[in-house]
Amino acid sequence: MASISQETPGISSTSARLKLYSFWRSSCAWRVRIALNLKGLPYEYKAVNLRQGEQFSEEFTKLNPIHFVPTLVDGDIIVADSLAILLYLEDKFPGHPLLPDDLQSKAISLQAAVLIGSNIQPLQNMGVLNLIQEKLGPKEHQAWPKHFIEKGFTALEKLLKDVAGKYSVGDKLTLADIFLVPQVYNARSYNVDMSKFPTLNRIDQALAELPEFQAAVPERQPDAKA
């Protein structure tokens, strides 16, 4: 597993070094990269090549026995699963908060994040798609994720259309935005027509202008195309 230091532009490395075990194409790891950038936290990027099976190595299994990325190491603390990591970062590094103080807005942000993280993305992970292709063939390998993305986005569009401002929940960045961007990227890879979801599409375009989001995209990671 390769190790590369990542610095957020304009941020000095004054805090203890965080280690993020990541794969460039993982949408779950992508969420954490965005959050680290938004909070201005320098970290060490530990590349885990899922295509070569590095997640099953003895080193990584000790950190995360379920063999998924991302995994965050903060000194003696090990946190796996993107939502758990994001909430950990929110508690430990409250600067640049990613959850609103208003309870209703906070609930909507969390609902949007969980809708994507629990009801859309897991149906497109590598293990699921490989099994679908093995059992049902290559056509279903494409049709399956597209169906569930469109179903989830239909619900998400309804949830956010009346609360969105510049971003998903008003005009401040929240966890909803962090979860949205990687999922829209995946949606386009499965030829989902984003014009059906004008609120989500508009928010995604606004987020794409932010340098913290730009720095987190898969193609700009040190292990890209690995």
TrEMBL record:
Residues 102-226 form the GST C-terminal domain. One of its GO terms (cellular component) is cytoplasm. It comes from the Eukaryota. It is an enzyme of class 2 (transferase). It catalyses: RX + glutathione = an S-substituted glutathione + a halide anion + H(+). PROSITE patterns: GST_CTER, GST_NTER. Belongs to the GST superfamily. Zeta family. This is glutathione transferase. It comes from Pinus densata.
